[in-house]
Amino acid sequence: MAAVDWFAHAEVAEPAPVRRPRKPAARPARPVRSRRRHARRHVRAHILGMSLFATLLAGVVAVNVAVLRAHVAVTKLDQQRAQLQAQNQALASELSAASSVPRVEAAARRLGMVQATATGTSYLDLTPHG
Fold first, then answer.
1. C-alpha to C-alpha distance for 110 and 123, rounded to whole angstroms
2. Residues near 115 by beta carbon (within 8 Å), at least 6 away in sequence
3. Max Cα separation, the chain?
4. What is the mean pLDDT of each run of 10 residues along the chain (130 residues)?
5. What is the C-alpha to C-alpha distance for residues 58 and 66, in angstroms, rounded to an integer?
6. CB-side exposure of 105: number of CA atoms within 13 Å?
7. Distance between CA 81 and CA 89 in Å, rounded?
8. What is the 3-state secondary structure (H, E, C) of 22-87?
């Protein structure tokens, strides 16, 4: 009891009568079928939602896998391109060394060829006369 109740008069201090709630008017009972149908629809909606979410998630995973595979393929092609460029540079260097003038002159001397003198050269006229 609160302190205020100790000093109140007896008629004021008495508890208020308990009112009982009125019984609601009798409603017609809903058929059990409609509740079951509603529950089934509710469950079906959840199953459909989860299925849609799972499908979208699987799609995202599939796209990520495809992007990863494409990235791996691009990386391999980049490595192959770099390797081929290095081979081309090596071949160009080898070609330049093989066609250098001192190397060609040395190969000609080994075969017994000599360089022609400027006075010992003559020209042929290959134009047809007719």
1. 27
2. 105
3. 156
4. 56 70 69 65 88 97 97 97 97 90 90 87 84
5. 12
6. 5
7. 12
8. CCCCCCCCCCHHHHHHHHHHHHHHHHHHHHHHHHHHHHHHHHHHHHHHHHHHHHHHHHHHHHHHHH
